[in-house]
Design brief:
The chain has helices at 12-18, 27-32, 36-54, 63-72, 85-95, 119-128, 142-150, and strands spanning 79-80, 106-107, 136-139, 154-158, 172-174. It is mainly α. It is globular.
């Protein structure tokens, strides 16, 4: 979602600094390793930061048109995010993308282990009664690609800048969401 359907807005280095998490360390994993009381406080801080960012979300160019066309073609659409579901809903609402997803198709860290774990993809595949060979994971970061690989689905690396840093994990590389239509 963030950086794929919406314009990238998170400065993870700043978030880590605010939360007193070592630079370069994945945030959710760092929080999971904290003592329970500290982890709970840090989760609340993270939630507030992410909700603030969510309310400022804007869609990627071509997001609405691409999702509209995919939906018209009967493609099942879902969100797998490392955010909480309420943050995902706020992000989609702010970006004008809510109409493409239902609560059952927005999977976040509240519902399953976060990416790169494939649990969320598996959950969506089961919900749709879909075939993994006909399922695609589109994302802008290595956790997205790893989750797709771990779930044995096609991976699409989205990078508007054309910086495809993980070619060994990428089946298809795109610079525009509209490329999904071809």
């Amino acid at each position: 979602m963030d950086g794929t359907l919406t314009m990238a807005a998170h400065n993870f280095d700043d978030i880590r600094e605010t939360l007193n998490i070592e630079a370069g360390t994945p945030i959710l994993e760092a929080i999971a390793a904290m003592p329970p009381d500290k982890a709970q406080d840090t989760r609340h801080q993270l939630h507030a930061i992410e909700m603030d960012i969510a309310h400022q979300s804007t869609p990627q160019p071509d997001a609405v048109a691409t999702l509209t066309t995919l939906q018209q073609r009967g493609v099942s659409l879902g969100i797998l995010t490392r955010n909480a579901e309420d943050i995902a809903a706020a992000t989609l609402a702010a970006a004008g993308l809510s109409q493409f997803f239902t609560a059952d198709t927005i999977i976040g860290r509240d519902s399953c282990a976060p990416k790169p774990d494939p649990a969320g993809i598996t959950q969506l595949i089961n919900y749709w009664q879909a075939n993994p060979t006909e399922t695609v994971m589109v994302g802008d970061y290595v956790f997205d690609l790893d989750a797709g690989r771990n779930a044995s689905v096609t991976t699409v690396h989205f990078s508007p800048e054309g910086e495809f840093l993980w070619p060994e994990k990428t089946d298809i590389a795109i610079r525009s969401l509209s490329e999904l239509l071809t």
